[in-house]
Amino acid sequence: MSAPSFQLTGRRALVTGSSRGIGLALAGALAAAGAHVVLNARDAARLAGAVEDLRATGASVEACAFDVTDEASVLAAAPALGTIDILVNNTGIQRRGPLATMPLADWNAVLHTNLTSAFLVARAVVPGMIARRAGKIVNVCSLMSELARPTTGNYAAAKGGLKMLTRAMCAEWAPHNIQVNGLAPGYILTEMTEPLAADPKFDSWIKGRTPAGRWGSVADLTGACVFLASPAAAFVNGQILTIDGGLSAVI
Ligand code: GCO
Fold it and tell me: Among 38, 118, 157, 251, which residue is least crowded by beta carbons within 10 Å?
């Protein structure tokens, strides 16, 4: 019986929203596992810096700047992307506020960026995966795909939708040997959560509410992403792997 392979050598991986934070960490881990990674963001200058940083670690990496929320931008970028064997739909924003007074612009921005973009980019790369009868899609969902808190209604709706989009993609694309799964980070220290961690009350609540007693780091997410992107997960499909220090397991 051969050991399961976590090797990604020879695979090309696109990670959306990967100029910083979780996306850049996931891209670095996929590269360390042997993949050639394509970084993506709208900001070409920030992307160039991320490419240099990753290349300095020995990674095989390139950049493709396009707006994942814009259908025309995604379709225009598709030829330049080349073969994509692994897609990580990571792009996400947060626009917190009470639903009762939330501007439609804040609702639309979060739903479009965190949910519709995953549909647009997957729709662009999946024909190649179907043709090759092989592919991996990892949608970066959230603890908020299952749990909500006040002022994040748009984000929770988008991430809940992304969980079900993951299952819908599984239903349609698993017959083509494409494994589609989700990663659901809990409270991870990133630019998005910095204001929360800086609030002593919220910081203390998270540490008390999380069995592991700490915030997560982007490094806590990388192993699970490599696993889901690897041959070792060939029979894992439509699953959401939650990485939250146990927060969603307890009351
Ligand atoms: C918040 C946070 C969360 C985290 C993460 C939790 O305002 O509560 O931004 O939404 O970003 O998604 O899983």
Answer: 251
Q: Residue 60 is part of a domain; what is its CATH number?
A: 3.40.50.720
Q: Does the active-site annotation cover 155?
A: yes
What's the CA-to-centroid distance between 155 and ligand 1, angstroms?
8
Number of domains in the chain: 1
Q: How far apart are CA 40 and CA 51, in angstroms?
A: 10
| Residue 31 belongs to a domain | yes
Count of CB atoms situated within 10 Å of the CB of 42:
16
* Strand-pair partners of 139: 89, 182
- Cβ(140) to ligand 1 under 6 A? no
The atom number, within ligand 1, closest to the CA of 144 reads 13
Whether the CB of 154 sits within 6 Å of ligand 1: no
Residue 137 lies in a domain: yes
The pLDDT tens digits of the residues spanning 13-67 come to 999 999 999 999 999 999 999 999 999 999 999 999 999 999 999 999 999 999 9
Angle, helices 153-173/117-132, rounded to nearest 10 degrees = 20
Residue 136 to residues 42, 84, 86, 122, 193, Cα–Cα distance (Å): 23, 9, 5, 10, 28
Running DSSP on this structure, what letter comes out for residue 211?
Answer: T
Residue 99 lies inside a defined structural domain of this protein: yes
Residue segments in the chain with a per-residue pLDDT below the cut of 70: none
Q: Is 68 a domain residue?
A: yes
Sign of torsion, CA 70 112 31 21?
A: positive
Q: What domain range includes position 168?
A: 12-242
